[in-house]
């Protein structure tokens, strides 16, 4: 319920064109992905990417570098940072760390600070869907399964219109 209210408020702010932070290009694009394949060894608190995960990270860079992101966001784990590393290098950007459990605050930050720009966010199977809801779109699935790493969520926001979601796949 709280996310629905926040989504409605953010849509109204975009529709009203309030504030200088909302000025600029008409489309805000946010790409969201889960980290690449991680080491499945039991008991590892912060696993690294596998070779397949590293290949997926490079595929992400190949796919999104031409979109010219102005900011990259990662959680504070080795696997999410490694997933963004090739894109960060090609875009010459330093990834910013966000809290994956503060969906609403992070969505507001993206709306306010990056209106009219492209941003990439790397998260986790249990954090991406709530973040999509906070951004004002309905996720096309109830969960991202442990073995699913290839979803590429694209959220587009335009003034006066509801946010739109496009789902594709990338990598292997």
Structure, described:
This protein is of the alpha/beta class and 172 residues long. It has a single domain, classed as Rossmann fold. The chain is built from five helices and six strands, in the order αβαβαβαβαββ. It has helices at 2-16, 51-64, 78-91, 103-113, 128-134, and strands at 27-34, 71-74, 96-97, 118-123, 151-158, 164-169. A six-stranded mixed sheet has the order 3-2-4-1-5-6, covered by helices on one side. Helix 2 (51-64) packs parallel to helix 3. It starts with a helix and ends with a strand. The model is unreliable at 15-25 (pLDDT under 50).
Relative strand content:
15-25%
Number of strands: 6
**H/E element string?**
HEHEHEHEHEE
Unreliable sequence segments: 15-25
Instruction: Briefly note the structural class of the backbone.
Output: alpha/beta
In which range does the helix fraction lie?
Answer: 25-40%
CATH topology: Rossmann fold
Can you tell me the CATH class? Alpha Beta
Distance between the termini: 37 Å
Average pLDDT number: 89
Rg is: 16 Å
Largest sheet: 6 strands, mixed
Kindly report the name of the CATH homologous superfamily: Phosphoglycerate mutase-like
How many domains, in number, for the residues?
1
Which shape, going by the Cα principal axes? Answer: globular
